[in-house]
Write a structure and sequence with these properties.
Elements (H helix, E strand, L loop, with lengths): L27 H9 L4 E2 H4 L5 H6 L4 E4 L3 E2 L9 E2 L9 H12 L3 E6 L10 H14 L4 E5 L7 H13 L9 E4 L9 H4 L5 H12 L4 E9 L5 H13 L4 E6 L16 H14 L3 E4 L12
Parallel strand pairs: 2-5, 3-4, 5-6, 6-7, 7-8, 8-9, 9-10
Antiparallel strand pairs: 1-2
Helix pairs in contact: 1-4, 4-5, 5-6, 9-10
Length: 297
């Protein structure tokens, strides 16, 4: 099926493979206390991730830095938008305290987009990395950052300086993700204020850093064609991206863009195989896959 515009009168019925059951309690309570007890935000809650119950029951979460208000209003995203006021210098310490409470060995840090800040918030990512590695020199850390619209060089330098300044014996390895989200043709509707080429430029610059792996993600079901998906995967590989995830777009509310198509799990399996053939060394693809889903695996 090929669709060329994001418009639809009636919502599609969710197929059976999209409907998730509740995970067992597991470590859910401990995760919830570690997050809420330290007044932290997670993309799991703010973006209405369908895997929150499962991931929190496994004792893991994706922390969202710099508050819960984004300066952009993407058509797919449930995170609030407006004028952020969040400014809490102790946030990296509270993140590290939560990591200790959850006994994490691998941490994923993302953030709202902060176009209001001179460095786009890159210094908060850098300070969080330093604090985590100061306490646990071998902990795995993954970033999922905005595109740093007006300050890419400054943002990259802030993180690179943090990696270079780590004490001897501390691992420098870092996974730095930035999601292109969709195909170039749909950017005006899906990612207002963003640029496909700007996103690729960030990913290419990140991939050139020592000890850093570049990662990206696509959400499908907004009207993109197979040819467009293949072209984006090829673009990412040409820019040095080595990790990629592909998942089904799910409409978080009636105010957001509609789902135009639910892809069958076999289609995701096909894209996973294709991505591996293109040379991606880490690939996750499936209806409920999100960029940080089993990121540690």
């Amino acid at each position: 099926m090929t669709t060329h515009s994001i418009s639809q009168s009636l919502p599609l019925r969710k197929p059976v493979w999209i409907r998730t059951g509740l995970a067992g309690d597991g470590l859910f309570g401990r995760t919830e206390h570690a997050v809420h007890g330290r007044l932290l935000h997670t993309v799991c809650e703010e973006a209405k991730c369908p895997n929150r119950s499962e991931c929190w029951s496994r004792g893991t979460a994706t922390f969202m830095l710099m508050g819960d208000v984004c300066t952009r209003a993407c058509g797919f995203c449930a995170v609030k938008n407006g004028r952020p006021t969040f400014n809490e210098p102790d946030e990296p310490n509270r993140i590290a305290d939560a990591v200790a409470a959850m006994n994490l060995k691998y941490v994923v840090l993302t953030s709202v987009t902060r176009d209001d800040l001179p460095d786009g918030g890159a210094s908060v990512f850098a300070h969080s990395l330093l604090e985590l590695r100061r306490r646990w020199p071998g902990i795995g850390v993954e970033f999922l950052t905005p595109d740093f619209r007006n300050c890419q060089e400054r943002a990259i330098r802030a993180v690179d300086d943090a990696l270079s300044g780590l004490p001897e014996g501390t691992i420098r390895a870092l996974v730095w993700g930035h999601n292109v989200e969709t195909v170039p043709r749909l950017y005006r509707q899906v990612r207002k204020g963003s640029s496909y080429e700007r996103s690729l430029a960030l990913l290419e610059a990140v991939a050139r850093l020592d000890s850093v792996e570049s990662k990206s993600s696509l959400m499908l079901g907004l009207g993109e064609t197979r040819e467009e998906i293949v072209a984006v995967l090829a673009d990412l590989r040409r820019r040095g991206v080595s990790r990629v995830s592909l998942g089904q777009y799910l409409q978080p509310s009636r105010r957001h863009l509609p789902v135009l198509r639910y892809l069958h799990p076999e289609e995701f399996a096909d894209y996973e195989q294709l991505a591996r053939q293109l040379g991606f060394r880490w690939v996750k693809a499936g209806p409920l896959v999100r960029s940080s889903y089993y990121a540690e695996s």
